[in-house]
Amino acid sequence: MNLLRALLHLAGVFLSAYILTAEIAQAAGVRNKKQKIARFLDTENHTNNWAVLVCTSRFWFNYRHIANTLSMYRTVKRMGIPDSHIILMLADDMACNPRNCYPATVYDHPKKTTDLYGDNVEVDYRGYEVTVENFIRLLTGRVEAHTPRNKRLLTDDKSNVFIYMTGHGGEDFLKFQDAEEVNSYDIADAMQQMWEKKRYREILFMIDTCQANTMFSKFYSPNVLSIGSSDKGENSYSYFHDRDIGVSVIDRFTYYNLDFFESVDMSSKHTIADMIGTYNTSLIHSHPGVRTDLYARELQKTYLTDFFGAVQEVELTTKPFPIGNKQAST
Amino acid sequence: MALGDKLRALFARRRRQPRTVISMHRERQVAVFSILLLLLVGLPLWWTTTRVYRADLPSEKVNLFAPENAFEVPLIFYIDTESPLSADKAQLIQTNTQALIDAERASFAVGEWRVRYLVDVRVGAAPDAPGHYTLYLRADDATTTASISVGSDRSATISVTQSIVAEDILPELISSIVINEEQAVRGKDTKARKKSQSSHAAVNYAPEYSITLTLLNEDPVNGAVVDWEIEQAVDAYLKPFVDKISPLTKLSLSSQILHHAGSPPVVPLRANNQSYLTPEMLPHFVNSPSWNFASIDPISPMLNFLLFVPELTSQPMHIADEKGDIQSSEAFLVSQWGGVAIANLPDTTRPGDRVKLSKTDMQKYMGYYIAQLRQLIGIRSGTPLPQHGSRARKGSISRIDTRLATETGISDWEFDALLRQWLIRNRQTAITTLQSLVRLVNSLQNMVVMDEIKAQVDKSLEALYKAEQALTDILSLDSSRFHHSYQHAFESAAAATAFAETAFFDPSMVSMLYFPDQHKYAIYMPFFLPVAIPVLAAIKRIISERRRNKAIAAGVDSADHAAKKSN
């Protein structure tokens, strides 16, 4: 009997020692990696913007998550990112939900001034296609060979990528479809794989969920700027409740972001710092977090149009090539 | 209740049965055997079934490629003079050229991946193959200095006075050609890139590009119904380019007409009976949500060329610069996206007219598209030498004329330069992709690595070695077999990139990589706890029995002792 007790004690000591060393090793590893990150950035080398907008929630009572994502979609499109560069993932279809008393529409405000669904929405991943696997495949580019173009993130080292996620989450995870969850480690690894293959120049990661700031705490790849809606241990709250539709139609954090974007257009000189400056904890009811240690540029010099606008460089073609002419020499 | 009673009776009966030594012995054996079985069979089974399969990637071989080890690309110049040149002189020219290049190279910024061009000078006529160039040296007493005319084939004619000797002028010329290109090719050196006039417009190499030509008619109701002779125009002007470049990349063409296209997302300004687009408008011009340029091709990079026919009320439409001055050109290039040309219809056009843009009308627009396509693909202007002799400071070369390849749109010099540029880029891409893959696989220990991935990595390495071998073959003297080694090197490098990317983007390498310890306990507990409890109980019984036996033995011993003592 004593021997058994001693064995159990021994096992307990081993287990706690293992956990302790593992934690220390991990912490040390993170610190090393942070130091190693190269801060080199060729600021001119930027030719296109991409947006990945993800709503991970199903069911009618999660109407607001669809509305969040569609509002973001409208905004990035208005700012000039073409549909071909927007990957929109919606886990459910609220416009066609039988409980929707305004069929074929989605609104983000009780006043119902703009129909977010409108006539020009290109949903790239819908319903049960929105899975953790598909999301990670999209980011890392490891899609099946037959995947169509609109389901691929065809970015390169000259692309700035805006990733927006919303849904129900907790510490270090975000629930997908009520069935599975993506955790912060996997997103961090996916981003590192993107960096290794030069699939982005800069990433702006924005997430609106409960305990959102934990989701980007594990990132370790360079040139990633992250913004989350709430601290660890905090909930993110919904905003407008629509009495006709019967559910909340938008979340507070997303609402105040969009509110700021209303004052911004394609040629705006507003910076990310301006946007973060408008966050008001008493209105949002949670503490938005910003992680800048991986990001090389100053937020005051990072224009919103760096991530949201159309950044095409244009050049005048001065004269046609004398094709088909008999003889030409310059 | 009845069952409980029965069970109780059964246990009571068993307990009443005398325990024989044999039954106790067997029970112990069974317990010990089950523990051993668990350890011997269970542990290896558990280990093999939960192990992540990881093929052994040839990481040492991959990491042997280092940026400092320069990649050597040979260029071979054949000199054709009126009086035959001796081999010694050719050798002298080569030595002088190399010296000039080395001197110039020392001033270069160090690129990320080093490239070194080698020069070989030979006498005679060059074979018609990439990498082999003929320099004709012709005496011309009419000129006082040297003038060069560069042909659209792989040749250049140098007209010199008798007083200038080949050994002086040729090293200068050859080194300028080589340095001009080497500087531009040097990786991510921004200074060099600015100098070489290439912008970010160029797209990365792909084995195929899908090119879409779109006629956008803003308003056919209040304007004209516009059609174009696109097939004839493509056959006449674009097809030669496509055919010429086909050994390097495939350009697949498609065309469409969008009637009722609607207005662009910018509103052109109107003054003096003409409308114009300002430079701020141009970047947004192509972003109309109602213009559909979607391609059916899933991965090839798309290049779009638009011919925009504005509605009659905003014709003629021009492009103005910052000051508002109208430019003569009506076309602009959008980096990495494509090009736009604006078609203004004749003044006499009335609403409802049918207008067909004929092949000859299209020549101008096709000329714009060729100019834009050249830039998008990465053909540098000033190949092999900048037009106005930036090297005139050296004095001996006064004029450089370059023949434009008006039949195809790309001269042989430009073709070769593009081949070398893509060859070097592809080699770098393949190497960096392989190295990233190796790094990733090492850092993510939970990632499955299948044998197919190893096979692709091996193929990619093999192709890289082949490319290098092909380039060294060119320099060997009995080289008639190796005339097309340039092409082979290019193809091998492209294949190396393709294999490396297939390996990197293998769909099997996506799994849930992070598996927290809590989850491991949660999964193993239900499996092992039910097995562990009886086993642990048996161990406990064995131990306690042994102890009891010892105690009994000791008791007997001490009793004996006591008995002996009392005796």
Automatic annotation (TrEMBL), chain A:
Active site: H168, C210 (nucleophile)
Biological processes per GO annotation: attachment of GPI anchor to protein; GPI anchor biosynthetic process; proteolysis
Keyword Protein biosynthesis: no
Domain of life according to the entry: Eukaryota
Signal peptide annotation: 1-27
GO terms assigned for molecular function: GPI-anchor transamidase activity
Annotated InterPro entries: Caspase-like_dom_sf, GPI_transamidase, Peptidase_C13
Keywords: GPI-anchor biosynthesis, Signal
Keyword tRNA-binding found: no
A Gene Ontology cellular-component term: GPI-anchor transamidase complex
Pathway stated in the Swiss-Prot or TrEMBL entry: Glycolipid biosynthesis; glycosylphosphatidylinositol-anchor biosynthesis
Pfam families: Peptidase_C13
Family: Belongs to the peptidase C13 family.
Protein's name according to its UniProt entry: Glycosylphosphatidylinositol anchor biosynthesis
Gene that this sequence comes from: GPI8
From TrEMBL, chain B:
Membrane topology: Multi-pass membrane protein
Family in the record: Belongs to the PIGS family.
Ranges that cross the membrane: 521-539
Subcellular location as annotated: Endoplasmic reticulum membrane
Protein's name in the database: GPI transamidase component
Naturally occurring in which organism (per UniProt): Coemansia guatemalensis
UniProt pathway: Glycolipid biosynthesis; glycosylphosphatidylinositol-anchor biosynthesis
Keyword set includes Membrane: yes
Gene Ontology, cellular component aspect: GPI-anchor transamidase complex
